[in-house]
Amino acid sequence: MRRVSRITIAGVATAALAVTVSACGSSSTSSSSEGKSKGIGLAYDVGGKGDQSFNDAAYAGFEKAQKDLGVGGRDVEPQDNESDADKVQRLETLAKAGYNPIIGVGYSYAPAVKEAAAKYPKITFGIIDDNTIQAKNVADMVFHEEQSSYLAGVAAAKATKKNHIGFIGGVDIPLIHKFEAGFKQGAQSVNPKIKIESQYLTQTAQEGGFSSPDKGENAANGQIEAGADVVYAAAGLSGQGVIKAAADHKVWAIGVDSDQYKQDALAKYKSYILTSALKNVEGAVYDLSQSVIKDKKPLSGEIRGDLKSGGVGISESNPAFKNNADIQAVIKKAEEGIKNGTITVKTS
After folding, report:
1. pLDDT higher than threshold 60 for residue 5
2. How far apart are alpha carbons 151 and 174 in whole angstroms?
3. How many CB atoms lie within 10 A of CB 98?
4. Phi, psi values for residue 229, rounded to 5°
């Protein structure tokens, strides 16, 4: 996990505040105008900024909201092996500085958001990928990841030349089981006899399942050597290793959360990124920020993104995917079925 601090002092953030935040993770700050302290607080999940996937999708929403809404913001990196108390301290530091909303990126922030929200009832908190917090000042932003993964499975089954594909999950938890379930169901809807490799990198996030490209690369190498010629990873930063392995072997990779075909850090591999199963984390961060700062009507409660609402989807950036009429026909049919309810996607 990166330990490099990206700090640009702006607004009225004090040196003491910078030291406090640094104690529980590196951070960066920005402001639309000098002396303006109100803005958006963003606390990253395991892997931090630069994962080209989940966290970077949140950062994109954070950046866009600052620009469009004319406010500043502070985004804070996680620490290795941090505790819930570290997360609470991080969120409370942002709250004391006047940031509103404050968003925890990832389910692991649930205990910290619950505690911090109770202490700061006038501040709106958001959490992505968790819907267990019931508080008037908390927005639980969750998604039907199984639906976009179903489409990824359809794409994989149409693209494979060996009828043999693979799934790699970062951590063996219910959230990632949704990705696996949807992917398998989608692939089997095209070919019930397709062979699907499946592997989880670790049992817990602390073991590096979401933050170890080397683990992802090793797992992908194993699946490809076993015969898979399309691999799909739901593994955060570790997914970069999966994409590298796919490119090295000249087989297809399917990205996740962000459109990984467009990510600068993955540009040298993009010709091997068939598509990406998208999750609109960017939009979730933006919409919550707008509801607080511009609309003055903060969102709260469960906010769930699905295929019909545009909360999840599949990317078409790679011409090899977009211009393949055979794949597109099956994808469109699957999308219609999910939207109209004739296809119910499994979550486990």
Report:
1. no
2. 19
3. 14
4. -120, 10
Q: Are 43 and 109 in contact (CB under 8 A)?
A: yes
The Cβ of residue 213 has, within 10 Å, a number of other Cβ atoms equal to: 21
CATH of domain 145-279+309-340: 3.40.50.2300
Q: Do β-strands 252-257 and 273-279 pair in parallel, antiparallel, or remain unpaired? A: parallel
pLDDT band, very low/low/confident/very high, at 252 (cuts 50, 70, 90): very high
Mean pLDDT of the chain: 90
Domain borders along the chain are 15-144+281-305, 145-279+309-340
Helix (H, G, I), strand (E, B) or coil at 82: coil
Q: Give residue 225's pLDDT.
A: 98
Rounded to whole angstroms, how far apart are CA atoms 86 and 62?
22
Residue 16 pLDDT more than 80?
Answer: no
pLDDT-derived band at 115 (thresholds 50, 70, 90) equals: very high
Q: Check: CATH 3.30.230.10 for 15-144+281-305?
A: no
15-144+281-305 and 145-279+309-340 in the same fold: yes
DSSP bridge partners of 199: 168
Tokens of 24: 């529980």
Of residues 191 and 38, the one with the higher pLDDT is: 191
What value, to the nearest 5°, has the Cα angle with vertex 56 and ends 221 and 52?
Answer: 25
pTM greater than 0.70: yes
> Ramachandran region of residue 146, left (φ > 0), alpha (ψ -120 to 50) or beta?
alpha
What distance in Å separates the CA atoms of residue 218 and residue 199, rounded to the nearest whole number? 11
pLDDT in tens, 301-325: 999 999 999 999 999 999 999 999 9
d(CA 291, CA 102): 13
